[in-house]
Prior knowledge:
- By secondary structure, this protein is an alpha/beta fold.
- The chain has helices spanning 4-11, 15-19, 36-45, 63-71, 84-88, 127-140, 155-164, 175-185; strands spanning 53-57, 76-81, 98-100, 115-118, 145-152, 173-174, 190-194.
- It has 3 domains: 1-30, no CATH class; 34-101, Rossmann fold (3-Layer(aba) Sandwich); 118-206, no CATH class.
- The model has no long low-confidence stretch (mean pLDDT 92).
Amino acid sequence: VRSIKNKIIASYIDKEYYDGNRINGYGGFRYNGRWIPIAKNMYKEYGLKKGHAVLQIDCEKGFLLYDFHRLYPGLEIWGTDISDYAIGHAMEEIKLFIQKAPFTELPFEDSKFDLIIAIGVVYTLNLEGVIKCLKEIQRTGKRKSFITLAAYRTEEERKLIEWWTLLGTTILLHEDEWVEVLKHTGYTGDYKFTIAHSLNLIRSQD
Length: 206
């Protein structure tokens, strides 16, 4: 169980969060190629082609963008993040394509991107921020996007998610509540719920 102390440390999203103790974050955030099959699958599933533009919101050190760039050099890739540490330690090949920007105010023109990706970020915002972020995805994209949302279906799942997450308890909604939020913002992309079961979270019997 991560304590409020761990969450305070993680909230700075600096070296300790990315490359410090595991209880405070990733415990060493390094490239290992695990995003390669995801990049390949997204390229195929979303019909990406040479000349298409892809944005990842909260791209951190840019591992997924790096794999897109290496596998499909004809893609135009962009990333945003709010962490100076993550951007400063991003993959050298793509560092120039990452901008520091709030997730609620994307520095891009309307309908620029053929695919927008936001993994593990939307649910770290408060409700106002969630709405703004989703509307920004709609504004800057061409109706194709993929986001993940931490959610619960039972009270037990809610508690497990709260204990597990370091940054994502500002807003924690039931799956049905998330659907209402998505409808309100006019979100047209794909989404996947991150729930206790998918994370293999169980309550300790101790």
